[in-house]
């Protein structure tokens, strides 16, 4: 309830913002972080200064966020859905709310693994929240704040498969999305990598027996297994560590602190847990301890 | 840039699969396409119509849809094939219709008198095709066939989204991994494709010159 009420309040503030001056912006920054520690308060107020990306977005009253459309639980949009559902869109709503932007003013843009950096670099999206693992190479070209969630790569197989863990995939055909880190990891472990354009195509290949296993982050696999529990199961322990971060453009480094602070606040006031339980939590994952986020440089 | 060159064996391996797809599908498409062309101009009405229907249907279907049918449709019908075979089948299925039409245009370029003369000296349809019409037709169709083969070489990249780790799929592996070197990675792979296409057109050019003298 509290969550909904504070969002309504923020929506109202957002409306006010879009027609009012800088002074109002300052208020929005401080009023939305009142319940959290003083440190956040300072940062929010200063980050809404003139010339920051947050101020521009708050003034415009709208934001474009890149998410995945084919990962149940994380980011998924059915053919007839108006907006994507999942943990990543929830994070997007929390961030937009802190700018005074209501959920219906968010433009969701589908990103696939391979186009996330170009979308950020060209400004096609303001943020990427798309099961976007933080890596050093990516941080050379885009900003990544977080992690807001830590997961690990696992295997999805047909029930009764002789693959029980990552040690069994040598020489087996394992699919994932073309160009994803997960596919490189299983290739390094001796599996035959089979890349597809989307996770759902890969899942279909497992379901009809064309490939032996599907691999990607455990959270995504559990989402798929939950949709077809009689036929598919997730096996083995995680064999990598993926730290999901929120991508932003290097042109606006000031966004890092704002993202980190906003998530921190959501963790503290319970919004984070609620978002998790409403999405990934449904596929049987326990609500995690909020991971310690990287410092912004 | 280091990223690509330190793992250059992976680049070569990927282009090897691209070439493998191209050569297998190329040879099969030339053979099947020629048969289709012969059927289209042949005396058997059923074959003529069947070949005509094949060309009409397949030539107007996007290659991607053919891939989707072979990779996702066939397994639904419990037909399981290895990935390379599925890739070659999809490409051959598609390219054959274009080979057929290229060759048919060559057959039309051979004067009717040639076929009539070969019938007059008692050759069967098969013999007149093999010894009289097709050898002349093939010479006329080197440039259009080269275009069809060049298109095939580039069309192998559609397989990137279907479990085959050929050049384009490998390029996406690199760009996803090394987001800071996208331009160099892209150029490396573009050059690879350019080399393949240039080899095909050089081959076609030399055939064209050699056969021109013989005519």
Automatic annotation (TrEMBL), chain A:
Coiled-coil parts of chain: none
Secretion signal, residue range per the UniProt entry: 1-23
GO cellular component, one term: outer membrane-bounded periplasmic space
InterPro entries recorded: Bact_solute-bind_prot3, Solute-binding_3/MltF_N
Gene Ontology biological-process annotations: amino acid transport
UniProt entry keywords in alphabetical sequence: Signal, Transport
Pfam families: SBP_bac_3 (PF00497)
Taxonomy, superkingdom: Bacteria
Keyword Signal attributed: yes
Family listed: Belongs to the bacterial solute-binding protein 3 family.
Protein name, UniProt field: Glutamate ABC transporter substrate-binding protein
From TrEMBL, chain B:
Claim: Cell membrane is one of the keywords in the record: yes
The protein's name in its UniProt record: Amino acid ABC transporter permease
Keywords, ordered alphabetically: Amino-acid transport, Cell membrane, Membrane, Transmembrane, Transmembrane helix, Transport
Membrane topology of this protein: Multi-pass membrane protein
Lineage: Bacteria, Bacillati, Actinomycetota, Actinomycetes, Propionibacteriales
ABC transmembrane type-1 domain residues: 15-204
Compartment annotation: Cell membrane
CC terms in the record's Gene Ontology section: ATP-binding cassette (ABC) transporter complex
NCBIfam families named among the record's database cross-references: HEQRo_perm_3TM (TIGR01726)
GO terms (BP aspect): amino acid transport
TM ranges: 14-39, 51-74, 184-207
A GO term for molecular function: transmembrane transporter activity
UniProt similarity note: Belongs to the binding-protein-dependent transport system permease family. HisMQ subfamily.
């Amino acid at each position: 309830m509290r969550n909904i009420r504070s969002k309504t309040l923020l929506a109202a503030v957002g409306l006010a913002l879009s027609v009012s001056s800088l002074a109002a912006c300052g208020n929005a920054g401080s009023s939305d972080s009142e319940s959290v520690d003083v440190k956040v308060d300072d940062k929010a107020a200063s980050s809404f200064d003139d010339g920051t990306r947050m101020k521009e977005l708050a003034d415009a009253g709208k934001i474009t966020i890149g998410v995945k459309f084919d990962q149940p639980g994380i980011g998924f949009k059915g053919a007839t859905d108006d907006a994507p559902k999942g943990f990543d869109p929830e994070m997007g709503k929390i961030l937009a709310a802190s700018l005074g932007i209501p959920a219906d003013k968010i433009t969701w843009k589908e990103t696939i693994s391979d186009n996330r950096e170009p979308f950020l670099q060209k400004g096609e999206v303001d943020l990427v929240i798309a099961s976007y693992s933080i890596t050093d190479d990516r941080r050379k070209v885009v900003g990544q704040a977080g992690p807001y969630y830590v997961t690990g790569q696992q295997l999805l197989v047909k029930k009764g498969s002789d693959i029980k863990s990552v040690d069994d995939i040598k020489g087996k055909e394992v699919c994932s999305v073309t160009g994803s880190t997960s596919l490189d990891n299983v290739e390094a472990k001796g599996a035959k990598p089979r890349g597809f354009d989307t996770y759902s195509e890969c899942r279909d290949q497992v379901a009809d027996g064309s490939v032996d296993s599907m691999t990607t982050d455990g959270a995504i696999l559990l989402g798929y297994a939950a949709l077809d529990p009689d036929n598919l199961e997730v096996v083995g322990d995680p064999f990598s560590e993926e730290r999901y971060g929120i991508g932003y453009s290097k042109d606006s480094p000031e966004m890092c602190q704002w993202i980190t602070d906003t998530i921190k606040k959501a963790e503290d006031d319970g919004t984070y847990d609620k978002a998790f339980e409403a999405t990934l939590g449904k596929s049987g994952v326990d609500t995690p301890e909020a991971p310690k986020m990287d410092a912004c440089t | 840039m280091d990223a690509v060159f330190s793992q250059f064996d992976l680049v070569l391996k990927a282009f090897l699969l691209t070439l493998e797809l191209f050569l297998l599908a190329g040879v099969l498409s030339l053979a099947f396409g020629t048969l289709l062309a012969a059927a289209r101009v042949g005396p058997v009405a059923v074959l003529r119509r069947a070949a005509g229907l094949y060309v009409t249907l397949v030539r107007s279907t996007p290659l991607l849809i053919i891939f989707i049918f072979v990779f996702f449709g066939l397994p639904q019908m419990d037909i399981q094939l290895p990935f390379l075979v599925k890739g070659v089948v999809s490409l051959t299925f598609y390219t054959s219709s274009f080979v057929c039409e290229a060759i048919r245009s060559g057959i039309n370029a051979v004067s009717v008198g040639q076929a009539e003369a070969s019938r007059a000296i008692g050759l069967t349809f098969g013999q007149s095709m093999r010894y009289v019409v097709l050898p002349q037709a093939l010479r006329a169709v080197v440039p259009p066939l080269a275009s069809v083969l060049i298109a095939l070489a580039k069309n192998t990249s559609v397989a990137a989204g279907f479990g085959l780790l050929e050049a384009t799929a490998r390029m996406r592996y690199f760009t996803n991994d090394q987001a800071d070197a996208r331009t160099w990675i892209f150029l490396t792979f573009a050059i690879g494709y350019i080399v393949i296409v240039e080899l095909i057109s050089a081959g076609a050019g030399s055939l064209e010159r050699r056969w021109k003298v013989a005519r």
